[in-house]
Amino acid sequence: MSVNLTSGLWQCFKTGKTGNFIRLYSILEGISYKRAESALLFRELEDNNYAAWERTSENTESTELESTIDLKGFIPININSYESKNDQVVKAWNFLMSRGLFNTSEFEEAPYYLATQGRYKDRLIIPFKDDMGEIFFFQARALSPDIQPKYLNPSVDEGVKASNILYPFDYDADHLVICEGPLDAITLNLHGFNATCTVGSSISGVQMQMLKEFAGKIILAYDNDEAGIRGLAKFEAQRRQYLMPEFSVVFPPQTAKDWNEAHIKEENLSSWIHQNQYDYTYENITNQQLNQTF
C-alpha cells in the first residue's frame, strides 16, 4: 500500500482500491462510506492521527474533533417563535418567508436559528444536520446589509472545515443536484430534488471523494456567473482526476441570479432542470460558449 502524505489519499496494490481516509475506515469497519463519514467527521473521535489530519489550525491543542456545534445564544426559528416580540426574530421570520424557505408540509423543531450573541450575532443560522439530527456545521447569513460579510462559516476550531463537508443529501437517490450554497440546496429540496451544496463554487478534493461514492446521476447547478463558470471548470478537472463518470450541467433561469431567486419568482424549477440540463461534453461545452458569445 502507498499513501500520499500531501493529499492523504492511498492505494492498495493488491486489491487495486484507492481512496481517502474515510474510504479506508469504511473498508476496515465493513460499513458504508456515509456511515464512516458520520463516524469520523460528525462524531467525537479520540484518534490523534485522524484528528491531526483533520485539523488545520496549528494553534489548536486538542486532539479531538468537535462532535456538535455549540448552540449557546441560538434561538430556534420555528412555528413556536412566530409571535415573538424580539425584533431580530421577526426579521429572521420575514427573511425566510420572503425567500419561501419554510417547509410547510412538515414540522421541524428547529429548521433555522437566530444567533443573539458572539461572532454570529444577528445572523440567521442555516444548520447542517447529520443522520442523528445533530448539527455538525452551519452557515450564518447576515440579516442586515450593514453586517459584513454576508455569509460566515464556523472557524476550523469550532468544527469541520467548510471544504470538507457537503450539505446533507440522500446517498441512495437516483440523482443529486449540486449547487453553491445551502439556501439554494434547500430551495431545490422543496422542489423535490435531492440536492447538496459545496459551500461556494470551488469543489475540494475531499468533497469530490464523497461524491465519488454516490452512484446516481450528478447534475452540477452552479450560478451562471464568472465564479460559477470557474467552479464548473474545476469540477470537471477534479472529475477527471478522480476518474468519475461524466456529469450534467444546468444553470438557473436567466430571470434570476440563483435558484432561490428563481423560486421566489415562482419559476417551475422542476420543469426547468429537467428540460435545460445538458451533458458536460466537449461538443455541448463548445455550443454553450458560442451561444453565450452571440
Structural description of this entry:
The protein folds into three domains: 1-65, no CATH class; 74-158, DNA primase, catalytic core, N-terminal domain (DNA primase DNAg catalytic core, N-terminal domain); 166-294, Dna Topoisomerase Vi A Subunit, Chain: A, domain 2, CATH 3.40.1360. Helices cover 33% and strands 16% of the residues. The protein is built from ten helices and 13 strands. The protein has helices at 21-29, 33-41, 48-54, 87-98, 182-190, 205-212, 226-241, 259-264, 269-276, 282-293, and strands spanning 2-3, 10-11, 18-19, 74-77, 112-115, 123-129, 135-142, 151-152, 175-179, 195-197, 217-220, 248-249, 278-279. The strands form three sheets. The protein has a five-stranded antiparallel beta sheet, with helices on one face. Strands 10-9-11-12-13 form a five-stranded mixed beta sheet. Strands 1-2-3 form a three-stranded antiparallel beta sheet. Residues 42-67 have low confidence and may be disordered.
